C-alpha cells in the first residue's frame, strides 16, 4: 500500500497514458482501413499496457516486467510496419499482407490523407446508380505510407520511454522489498526467539528441587 501511494501521482503521467492513447488512436484508423493484422497487434498492446498499469497499482513487479518485455516486441513490430510501407527487403505496401490476404483494403490514409481527392468513374457494362468504381486519389499533401511510418515511429518512441520507466518502477519496488527484508519485515524468527527464553525459564522453574 505504501508503494502504491508513492507511485500514485505517476499513474497520471505521460509514461502510462501515452501508450494507451496512442494505441487507441492507431486502432481506430486501422479499423477504418480493415487492417486486420495491426488491429490484433494493437488490441494485444492495449491489454499489456493495462496489465502494466495494474502491476504498478497492485505492487506486482512481474506484470511490469511482462510489459517491459512486450515493449521490445512492440518496437520490433513497428519496425516491420515501417519496412512494409517503405518497401524494404522485398516488401510491398500494395500487398494484402496486413489484411491476411482476405481483402484488398489499404491504409485508411490512402484515400483520406491531408489534401487527398478521390476520383471515381462508372464501371463499363454496368448500369445503375451504384455503378461507381474508385479509380484514383490525387492531390495528397503527404503520401499515406509516410503517415503510417510516422505513426510507427511515434509508437517506437513511446515504447522506449515506457520501457525505461517500467525498469525504473521495478528497480524501486525491488529496493523497497530488500529494505523491508533487511529490517526483518518477513522474518518470523525474532518473535520465536523472544518467546523462547521465557518459556524455557518457566520450564526450569517447574522442576526446581524443594
UniProtKB/TrEMBL annotation:
Coiled coil: none annotated. It is a multi-pass membrane protein. InterPro entries: Na/K-Atpase_Interacting (IPR008516). The chain crosses the membrane at residues 6-24, 36-57, 63-86, 154-173. One of its GO terms (cellular component) is plasma membrane. This is Sodium/potassium-transporting ATPase subunit beta-1-interacting protein. Keywords: Cell membrane, Membrane, Transmembrane, Transmembrane helix. It comes from Sarcophilus harrisii (Tasmanian devil). GO terms for biological process: regulation of sodium ion transport. It comes from the Eukaryota.
Amino acid at each position: 500500500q505504501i508503494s502504491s501511494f508513492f507511485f500514485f501521482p505517476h499513474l497520471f503521467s505521460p509514461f502510462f497514458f501515452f501508450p494507451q492513447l496512442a494505441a487507441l488512436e492507431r486502432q481506430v484508423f486501422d479499423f477504418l482501413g480493415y487492417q486486420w493484422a495491426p488491429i490484433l497487434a494493437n488490441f494485444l498492446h492495449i491489454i499489456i499496457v493495462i496489465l502494466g498499469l495494474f502491476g504498478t497499482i497492485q505492487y506486482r513487479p512481474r506484470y511490469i516486467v511482462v510489459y517491459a518485455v512486450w515493449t521490445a516486441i512492440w518496437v520490433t513490430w513497428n519496425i516491420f510496419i515501417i519496412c512494409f510501407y517503405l518497401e524494404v527487403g522485398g516488401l510491398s505496401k500494395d500487398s494484402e499482407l496486413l489484411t491476411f490476404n482476405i481483402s484488398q483494403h489499404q491504409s485508411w490514409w490512402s484515400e483520406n490523407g491531408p489534401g487527398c481527392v478521390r476520383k471515381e468513374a462508372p464501371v463499363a457494362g454496368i448500369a445503375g446508380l451504384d455503378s461507381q468504381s474508385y479509380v484514383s486519389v490525387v492531390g495528397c499533401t503527404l503520401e499515406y505510407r509516410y503517415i503510417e511510418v510516422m505513426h510507427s515511429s511515434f509508437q517506437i518512441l513511446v515504447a522506449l520511454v515506457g520501457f525505461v520507466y517500467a525498469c525504473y518502477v521495478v528497480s524501486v519496488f525491488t529496493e523497497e522489498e530488500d529494505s523491508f527484508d533487511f529490517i526483518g519485515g518477513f522474518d518470523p524468527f525474532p518473535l520465536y526467539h523472544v518467546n523462547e527464553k521465557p518459556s524455557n525459564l518457566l520450564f526450569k522453574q517447574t522442576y526446581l528441587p524443594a
